[in-house]
Structures are given as structure tokens and as C-alpha cells.
Fold this sequence. Notes:
single chain, Rossmann fold, 6 strands, 43% helix, disordered N terminus
Amino acid sequence: MDPTPTDSPTSLSSEEAAKEEPPTPRIQTLQQTTAKRVYFIRHAESEWNSGAKRGIVGIVRALMKIDHPLTKKGYSQAAALQQALRDPPDDLAGVLSAEAVWTSPQTRAVQTALVALLPSLEKEDATAAVTLCPSVRERRNGAYSRDNVGGGVGEALRSLACDRLARLKADGVDSMRKAAERFDMAEVQSKWWTARKEPASAVSARAAALLGAMLESEHSAFVVVSHSQFLRRLLAEHLPDDGCGEHGPSGMARAMRKAKLPNCGVVCCTLEMEGEKPVLREAKVCWPADGAEMMLRKTKAAASAKVAPAPPPAKEIYTDAKADSK
């Protein structure tokens, strides 16, 4: 069975895939820097996300593919964010004025960027530089992490994302194709994903290097389209307990570090240096409207599950039931 998508025109051969792993970015020693504004966006729902919700059958089907695209629901989520950005509330207005957009090369992330950010990308005088950035790809957890195998390199990534959006009958595909022609593809001309499990330390190094690159950049605002595990690792290591400031209820910073950001969710924050470490401040879940509440519920549910008493052995249950019947 060939797991390579039939519509990936330049998917890598097994020989090419065996080449050396992409290098882990080095963490630079930062000089004096100014604070930056950053908008982190998790991709919309993908076929892998959908399959995982359907249990073992859905997972098995998802394992037959790689580099899973958006579902119809995922497209709708990205389209909802696009609509919000056409008349943005204060929390989202900065997305449209960001000078740089760095997106994971994985199809679901590229598609999310094309759909959600179309109000900015379709402008004739668009100034934001969109870069396909392997440093913000998702972590590969092992051989079964099929959604994190790249579907191709170079120009194939443009057509892969747009062709699959056309299958979903997405509005504005022609405008998206035109916008994709301006994407900077320099970093994805060769194999950009890992062939084996990526250590947590390597993900941490990628996250730290990413923030360092932002701080040293001439740009003042960024949009990063990425993935749940990468973003959780980044927030876990660079968002302090008081990182939300007055934004959101008590425990919000912990929830951002522990729970997955909802599909197509947006976190806005300020990035600055504190001592020798990049730190995120004023963090806020600014999309969807109930995103912060969802993350808090998930964190509380997970904490409750950890402290719940273990059920008694089956033998004790039988004995107690027998005694009650007397």
C-alpha cells in the first residue's frame, strides 16, 4: 500500500526521505531588542483531527494517508476567522497589520493561512511577507505520526494546499492561488520534516530559536500558523504564571501551557527579553470567543481525572454488591 497522496506532484522518494534530518535551529545570543507583538494561530480541523474523534476506525483510515488537509469543518472554521478579520475586533486587528507571516509547511497550516488571512493576502498592496517555515512544523511523535510526514517540497506545496481547497469548494480559491504565488518557499526546497521521533529538547530548541529570530528581526508584529504540540511546548517554556496579566481569569496561563488551543484558535501576546530568555506577556486567547473558557474547562477536567480515586478491584465490587443484596 502506497501512503503517498496521489495528488502530491513532487512527493519525496524513499531514497530522498532517508537523507539527513533537517538541522535544529541554533539559539542565538540576543543583543538589545525591542518588544514584538505576536499572533499564534493553530491550524483548523484536519482529516487527522477528525479521524481521531471517530475512534479506532477513524484512526486506521487516517494512518493510510500523510500530511492531512483540512476537513469541511476545518475550512468552515478558517472561513469564520476570515470573516472576523474583515471587520476585526480590537484583539484581532493587529493580525492584518503584521509585517511577517510564518506558517508551517504542512498542508493543513498552509490552507489555514490562505483561508483565514485572505483579507490581508488578497490586497494588491499586501506588504506582509509569508514564509513557509519548517521551524514551526508539528512535532513528530514516532512512526505512527503520519500527519507530520510532509506531502512534498517546493512548488508542490502551493498546488497541494490550493487544489485540496478547491475540492472543498472553498470561496476565493483563485485569489488564494494568486496569494500563494508570493509565498517565500526558500526553506522548503528539500526535505523539511523528520523521518523519526523528534526529541522534546529539539522542539524546545526550535521554539526558542523562533522567538529569538523574532526579537532580532526588523519587524514589529508577526503571525505564526502552527500546531497544537509545538505551541504548547513554546507556551510551556516561555509563558510565565503571570504571563496573561489582566487578560482572562485566574489560571489562564496554566491552561494555555497545558490544554490544546482550539482548532483555528488565536493567541495574541507580547514578546520581550527578560534577562537571557525570551518571555511572552499579555497573552490572551482572542479567537474563538469562547476559546479561553474551553481551555480552562479542559485543564480542570484533566486535573480532576488525575486526582480521582481509582475504582476498587472487580472482586471487591462483587463482594460489596453481594453484601448489599442480603
